[in-house]
Each structure stands twice: as C-alpha cells, then as structure tokens.
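Quick one, T. Sequence first:
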Amino acid sequence: MTEPIRLGTRRSNLAMAQSGQVARALEVASGRTVELVPITSEGDTNRASLASLGGTGVFATRLREALLDDRCDVLVHSLKDLPTAPAPGLVVAGMPTRVDPRDVIITRDGTPLEELPAGSRVGTGSPRRMAQVRRANPSVEIFDLRGNVDSRMARVRDGELDAIVLAAAGLGRLGAEIDLHVAPRELAEWPTAAGQGVLAVEIREDAPEPLRTAVASLTDPVTAFAQEVERSALAGIEAGCHAPVGIHAFVAGEEVRVRADVYAPDDADSVTLDERWPIPPGVFTAEAYSRGSGSDEATAGAYPRARTIGNDVARRLLVAGAAGLVADNPS
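Structure tokens:
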C-alpha cells in the first residue's frame, strides 16, 4: 500500500485552507492521498509585532525544521512570508497560479481610506502597509495588528478599529462571507509584498523523483516568472519580506512592467520605480521551469531572465537611494 504524502502546514484557518487546496491538486498529480500535518510556528504563538520578531521567516522556521526532520514530505507557504535566501537542503519545487495579489481596505460603511476622518483608527501589522496608509491619508492613526482574519475583522465590526488592511488572496482562499465593506487597492498605485498571492510548495532536495515531478507539475510559469522578478529585486536591495517595500511584476505578452516603492518615514524621500523590460519569446514553457537548464534562451532563459530583471530593478532602486531607507527600517 502506498503511503500518503504528508503535507506540513501552519495551524491557522487560512493556512489549513490553502494547504487543503494544494493537497487536492497534489493528490491528482501524484495519484496518492495527501494528509495534512499541522505544525505550530513562532509567528502563531508569539503575539508581538512582526517587526519585533524579526519579520523574515517567522512563520517558516518551524515548518522547515519539520521537513528536514522527516516529520512531513511537503510544505505549503505563503511565498510573501519566505526569506529570499534559499533554505539549505530544501527547494521550492511547485508554485501554483497566483491569485488576487492586491490588498483590500475593510471598513464598516465603505468610506474610502483617503476620506476617513482625522484620528480614524486603521489596523495593520505590516511596515509596508503602514507606510502606504500614511501616504493615502496622513491624518489617520495606525495600530499594530496581529491575529487571524476573523479576529481582525471583528475589531472593525465591533468599532475598535475603523479600518484594516488585508490581503485579498487570504479572503478568497478562506471563502468566508463578509458583512463589511471591502475595497481593493490597485497594484499600479499600491504595490504589495513580493510574492503576495503566491503559494510555495517546498520539498527536500533529496525528495524522491515521483514526488518532485508531481510537485513541479503544480507550477504556473507566468506566476513563477513574476515572483522571481519581485523576490530577486527584494534580495538585491537586501530587504526582508516584511520591509517597507511594495513591488509587483505585471507580465503581459513579451514584456514585464515592474512597479516598486521603497517607503520612507517622510513620504517625500520614498523611492519609486515604474519600468518595462522585454521578455524573450517562448520562456513560458514547461521546459523553462524544469531545472532552469537548456541550450537556448527560450528554454534556459526563464529564471535567469527574471533574475536579471529583478537585479536591474534592485540596482535602479539602490542608485535612487533605497539602501538608506531599508537600513532605516529593518524587518
């Protein structure tokens, strides 16, 4: 009898929901059953702010330890929560199609963020979102916010907060009915975290080939390309996944447009980039994402081209002054 694939996941409702979606797809791809293995991370038990916990990797460390210790075979992460540096002995081998990468503003009555009265209370635990809220409406008060989606929305519903900022992807994956007003922020003006809306399926480097093949089959090439651009840029400016940086790569046809913002306490000093780069024809093929190998640019150039663009984004941001902003806001 074939043993089930053990899929490690955080215990939150959102993590269990998104892991369940991957589990069902992996069952189809592998022909094996998949069982969820709940794992508690430091980010789930410590209610301090993400910045004080170090931000980068706070949700991933315990899961990765379980994978390396053979307590599970596969992990599912929200890619935006992963450090940009690879984890020794592990590899992200699958990346399903990205869902809505936007942030949303949730309020009781639908008042736009820009029109909230002075002193209104807005909750978010993200330094990047804090900076964006201040840019949109400098007169509101910002409160550090942790907890699951339901508890965050309850604080708006009960009047403790006037608005909160959440990821649209999380709301969609939970599929919850919402009795509050939800207003998406468009990416061209409000870029979100690198990799937001993307799930990363991670395995050990020495995983059996059938498992590696099944996980790899979950990858969407356009999603993989876009996130590689975003995360390469983040790594290039040496910013953690919770630094005050918004970046999104829009892939359309044979070009990619990148909007990136590195936020400063004084908005006038923030650094913004909005540029386009060409993409060689044929990079979005299965071969281009198998091992990043091949003899021509179409099959070999997907990840290298994405990294080159990301590195160029980072270089331009650094020249414009981003290095000092990231150093001033470590997270």
